[in-house]
């Protein structure tokens, strides 16, 4: 077994599924120890076993509900208790909520705001001072192509992702020269449980534009480790990200409305 401390350490949130699981697998395969955070304790334990068996090194399970502020603090305390520096934070955990605004559940919307926005801020604020003091560290946040436009039928979700992108871009600029970088990964639709959990179905149009989940995780990690500020994987997604620069926002809202309506 590898001695703890000789490998770099990453914290990956939302590591039990989808993009987060791919981040964790890629990192472990590349010699990182990984702290795995999500709510599903048993799933995380199984992933810990898989990573340690396949790649050696250490994986740690942090079963936390990050939609609660106290659990964000507890997750940060869990990482501190490892008594080793954190080299990479992947603030990936996020949920969506699909449907006409007044039909969506207010409590579910609050949980989404807490998870997508507040936990991202809480985790970054928690790890940043140490990284800056050490003069090194990487932070990878997960926005969306929805970060660039209003999102009728997923209004609050798109707004959370606009927040993540704006916050990440601003911090990246402030942190220039500190040795710490902030990168925002902005994926398009992915074949993960995300859309179904959000109450949407993946339309044929969305499926055609889908980039494989592992390739998206790869692109995010490469960008983060290279200290780049933003990455939008896939040509169709790149187009979706630049269109809002040229089209009026009202037209973008109409276009997204049609896409989201096709997912009902
Ligand atoms: N899939 C897409 O089409 C798409 C497109 C653009 C951006 N994204 C973004 O990509 C990120 C990952 O999404 P995904 O597609 O991989 O979705 P996913 O497969 O549904 O994974 C979501 C992850 O977040 C965790 N999670 C959910 N609620 C949580 C909570 N309260 N506390 C802690 N962890 C929680 C889930 O684990 P537990 O249920 O075990 O807690 C799971 O590990 C999200 O930020 C999402 O907004 C996704």
Write the layout of secondary structure elements.
Layout: E1 9-13, H1 18-29, E2 33-38, H2 41-55, E3 59-63, H3 69-81, E4 88-91, H4 106-134, E5 137-142, H5 155-174, E6 180-185, H6 194-197, H7 204-208, H8 213-225, E7 230-231, H9 235-246, H10 249-261
Helix pairs in contact: 1-2, 1-8, 3-4, 4-5
Determine and state the CATH class: Alpha Beta
Bound molecules: NADP nicotinamide-adenine-dinucleotide phosphate
What is the helical fraction, as a range of percent?
40-55%
Fold-level CATH name:
Rossmann fold
What series of H and E elements makes up the topology?
Answer: EHEHEHEHEHEHHHEHH
Description:
- This protein has one domain (9-261): 3-Layer(aba) Sandwich (Rossmann fold), CATH 3.40.50.
- It is 52% helix and 13% strand.
- It contains ten helices and seven strands.
- It has helices at 18-29, 41-55, 69-81, 106-134, 155-174, 194-197, 204-208, 213-225, 235-246, 249-261; strands at 9-13, 33-38, 59-63, 88-91, 137-142, 180-185, 230-231.
- Strands 3-2-1-4-5-6-7 form a seven-stranded parallel beta sheet, with helices on both faces.
- Helix 5 (155-174) links the parallel strand 5 (137-142) and strand 6 (180-185).
- The longest helix has 29 residues, at 106-134.
- NADP nicotinamide-adenine-dinucleotide phosphate is lined by residues 14-20, 38-40, 65-67, 92-95, 115, 142, 144, 187, 189-190, 192-195, 197.
């Amino acid at each position: 077994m590898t001695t703890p401390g000789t490998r770099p350490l990453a914290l990956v949130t939302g590591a039990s599924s989808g993009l987060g699981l791919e981040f964790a697998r890629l990192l472990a395969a590349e010699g990182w120890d990984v702290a795995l955070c999500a709510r599903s304790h048993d799933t995380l334990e199984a992933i810990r076993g898989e990573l340690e068996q396949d790649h050696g090194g250490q994986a740690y399970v942090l079963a936390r509900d990050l939609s609660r502020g106290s659990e964000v603090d507890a997750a940060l305390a869990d990482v501190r208790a490892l008594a080793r520096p954190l080299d990479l934070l992947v603030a990936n955990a996020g949920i969506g909520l699909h449907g006409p605004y007044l039909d969506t559940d207010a409590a579910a919307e609050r949980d989404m705001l807490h998870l997508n926005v507040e936990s991202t801020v809480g985790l970054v604020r928690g790890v940043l001072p140490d990284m800056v003091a050490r003069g090194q560290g990487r932070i990878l946040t997960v926005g969306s192509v929805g970060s660039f436009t209003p999102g009728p039928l997923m209004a609050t979700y798109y707004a959370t992702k606009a927040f993540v992108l704006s916050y990440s871009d601003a911090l990246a600029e402030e942190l220039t020269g500190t040795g710490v970088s902030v990168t925002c990964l902005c994926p398009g639709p992915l074949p993960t449980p995300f859309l179904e959990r959000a109450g949407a179905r993946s339309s044929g149009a969305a499926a055609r534009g889908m980039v494989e989940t592992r390739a998206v995780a790869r692109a995010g990690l490469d960008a983060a480790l290279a200290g780049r500020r933003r990455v939008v994987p896939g040509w169709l997604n790149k187009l979706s990200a630049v269109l809002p620069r040229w089209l009026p926002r009202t037209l973008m809202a109409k276009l997204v409305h049609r896409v989201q309506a096709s997912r009902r």
